UniProtKB/TrEMBL annotation:
Protein family per UniProt: Belongs to the ABC transporter superfamily.
Name the record gives this protein: ABC-type dipeptide transporter
Localization: Cell inner membrane
Job description of the protein: Part of the ABC transporter DppABCDF involved in the uptake of various di/tripeptides. Is also involved in the uptake of phaseolotoxin, a toxic tripeptide inhibiting the enzyme ornithine carbamoyltransferase. Responsible for energy coupling to the transport system.
GO terms of molecular function: ATP binding; ATP hydrolysis activity
Listed GO CC annotations: plasma membrane
Lineage of source species: Bacteria, Pseudomonadati, Pseudomonadota, Gammaproteobacteria, Pseudomonadales
ABC transporter domain residues: 9-259, 280-527
Assembly: The complex is composed of two ATP-binding proteins (DppD and DppF), two transmembrane proteins (DppB and DppC) and a solute-binding protein (DppA1-A5). Five orthologous SBPs (DppA1-A5) are present in P.aeruginosa, which increases the substrate specificity of the DppBCDF transporter.
Native source organism of the sequence: Pseudomonas helleri
Amino acid sequence: MSAAQPILLDVEHLRIALPSGGDRSHALHGLSLHVREGECLCVVGESGSGKSMLAKALLRLLPAPLKIEHGTLRWRGEDLANLDEPAMRALRGRDISMVFQEPMSALNPLLSVGRQIDETLQAHGEKDRAQRRTRVVELLGYVGLPDPERLYHAYPFELSGGQRQRVVIAMALAFAPKLLIADEPTSALDVTTQRQILDLLRRIQREQGMAMLFITHDFAVVEAIADRVLVLQKGHHVEAGTAAQVLGAPQQDYTRQLIAAVSAAPDHPRPILAPGKPVLQAQQLEKHFSRRLGWWGRRTTRALAGVDLQLAEGETLGIVGESGSGKSTLGRCLVRLLRSDGGSLHWHGHDVTDLPEARLRGQRGEVQMIFQDPFASLNPRQRIGTQLMTGPLAQGRSPAQAAEKAREVLGLVGLPETALERYPHEFSGGQRQRIGIARALAVEPKVLIADECVSALDALIQVQILELLEDLQRRLKLSIVFITHDLRVAARLSDRIAVMQAGQVVEQGATAALLGQPNHPYTRRLLQDFALHTSVLEATP
């Protein structure tokens, strides 16, 4: 990227104050940066480094308690502080657009994806209905979605994670913005889908001459997309330079630590377990989803196709596959949040396949789920203490006993008792995931179903959560089904691995044997894609 290109965005000495004060009195400490036309600046750092605060400040979307204490943000030379709210609304979506980390949080589950993009066009003054529809179909096709006319009527839950992210990108591109802010848009995606999304963004950037401010914690993503890199730690500028400089010769220990975390292999093999008593068994599980097409037709999708699984006492079974392979659907069927359409499911030898909800309620404490996005699964209007007490109270414990259990599980996951009085938005992503684990433990389960519970976290926080799960498994004698798209994580935590493709388990076996000598072509491709994702960084000093 030529330095002769004009500067679009110029941030000088930005300081954002936190309401809590103390050691972390500021989310950002005097940060300065610029973005030129057509370039991609990657802002890198772990959870709590201030990356997302920067993005929200640029769009004047900071939460109410936070405020810009000092500094200037200039768009094409104009100070954004001088713009009134109508002018900012006109700027957002037209000149500056944003792609969020979790598309299911950014999309309305009750509206078709076409209708949601249409509303974006309508909000910015596009009056002609036929022209809006043509533009929506054009955008869906432009971001690589198949059959855009059909997908116009699809709902977010009917799409895979990668498809939903493409819809959000299409929405952001509605008015060909000059700057796209992408806040961790690939962190929860498998490496194959991640590469497709990065290739898509690069193509769009080249074709439209668009600049990007790309927020990420993953240096493998930086290598794929960045022109320049800015590293943040706890709101402080650590290091900056071209992608080649920062990746090839990082100057700071923190940068080297982040790079090393991407390609880190398990530091200790898990011991091979003796066969234990089965605590969860699935045989020939089937699940279909259908939706109406017009007045008479229906479209049926087979999400699970004859899945056989068994989990032994004290074991961790990893479920691995790409986006849309059926992993999350399987997890929800195993915990009976979804009822299967065929096959059988046993918990501790008891058939719960078709058990009515009233009778199942007494057994729900045995099998609990940890969700991928703890912010979406926690009630933003309830204090943490209230949410941790809900399960024990439902089991018939007294309020005093439930409060004691809440304090106990917070201690188990390494959080202070003061967290009971706080709300979910007051915690970092890693802390919220600990709260999600604590909530699952509050009813004393024997089996945990962990659905991509570290995929949206940076590599350093991932390690902490994985160590926590390993420690809890030893102390509480838990059995775990660990759903993930990350083979590095699966290798560290799993005793056995089952590989899923298109709703089927195509291969399963002991972790070392399966990863060392995979038999199925799909497993071999997953391993090749993952090796490609990390290979460039392995030689970094």
